[in-house]
Amino acid sequence: MEKKDINWSELGFGYIKTELRFEAVYTNGKWSKGELIESEIIQVHEGAPALHYSQECFEGLKAQTAKDGRVLLFRPEMNAKRLIKSAERILMPVVPEDLFLEAVHQTVKANYAWIPPYGSGASLYIRPMLIGVADNLGLSPAKEFIFRVFVSPVGPYYKGGGVSLISLAVSDIDRAAPNGTGSHKIGANYAGGLLATQKAKELGANEALYLDAAEKKYLEEAGSANVLVAMTNNRFVTPKSKAILPSVTRISLMQLAEQEIGLAIEERPIHLQNEIKEFIEVAACGTAAVLSPVSKIWFKNRWFNFYDNGQSVGPIMQQLYHLLTQIQKGEIEDKYKWTQEVVI
Ligand SMILES: Cc1ncc(COP(=O)(O)O)c(C=O)c1O
After folding, report:
1. Cα–Cα distance between 317 and 323 in angstroms, integer?
2. pTM
3. Model confidence over 258-304: pLDDT tens digits?
4. CATH number at residue 289
5. Averaged pLDDT, 71-82
6. Which atom of ligand 1 is nearest to the CA of 82?
7. Which residue's alpha carbon is at the smallest distance from atom 1 of ligand 1?
8. CATH code of residue 150
9. Cα-atom radius of gyration of the chain, to the nearest Å?
10. If you take atom 3 of ligand 1, which residue's CA is the nearest one?
11. Which domain holds residue 92?
């Protein structure tokens, strides 16, 4: 099968229309079987709860071409489970894991020509989404729902690409309340963060970095990625909070840090002001961000620089980036059984 004529290595992180997407609908209490369709447009009623009250949740994962040509997904069952949790939190019918995985496999396979080749630095981003549709003016759950999966070839999320350095700016805007929806991947969490991202960019940073909303002391996460910190004494720490998204990438990297590099991993509250002096290497991580080393953080009206005064990528983050991406691209043995092949 021919690939599209695209300059894969020049791709940024944006939407490119591909031929086919998967759609299933939920009416009268049950899901349709689902099918591949051509149109990228979704027609919904003007009274749809997705439009007014953000009754919407979504996922993000990637397919990559391995060295031997196989097409690999990374831990897609974790995305399926997270979408179930998101749906339950905002009173939507869950998409059964089987339907989720079937939709992802079918959509990736149907758009084979759009999957970036091995070694291009690009991948196929997969966006499953679940929206509440049909008329409903009052504040109550929708009566009908659409589950859709579309894909787009993408390059690096942050400019620079690969394992290049980014910077973060601590935001005075809160992302998520302690007992709110921050740990779920729902659209409502993101609109409120657009202003924080804009302010961070005005300061010259790539993204906003949030503190906990209750005390404004503890590190939470970045706008679209979790954070990791290599600290003194071999410690490798990630924030513990009820309000952050449980990132598939972070869970995987923490395991690699412990089992492959032998670091002492900790998931606990990180008091930014008290502990920032002990930060040696910092990174943002996620499906889109992969592992992006953080050179500096804007906090209390000044920049704090990390490894090599923010000039280069530290050895721990470098090593973790390579381990993760080598597994994702089938370059080393997948001993944790994290990848899943899409049979083309
Ligand atoms: C707010 C937020 N945190 C973290 C992540 C990373 O999660 P994952 O590694 O599952 O992609 C994402 C999405 O990529 C996100 O939107």
Report:
1. 10
2. 0.98
3. 999 999 999 999 999 999 999 999 999 999 999 999 999 999 999 99
4. 3.20.10.10
5. 98
6. 10
7. 224
8. 3.30.470.10
9. 20
10. 225
11. 8-154
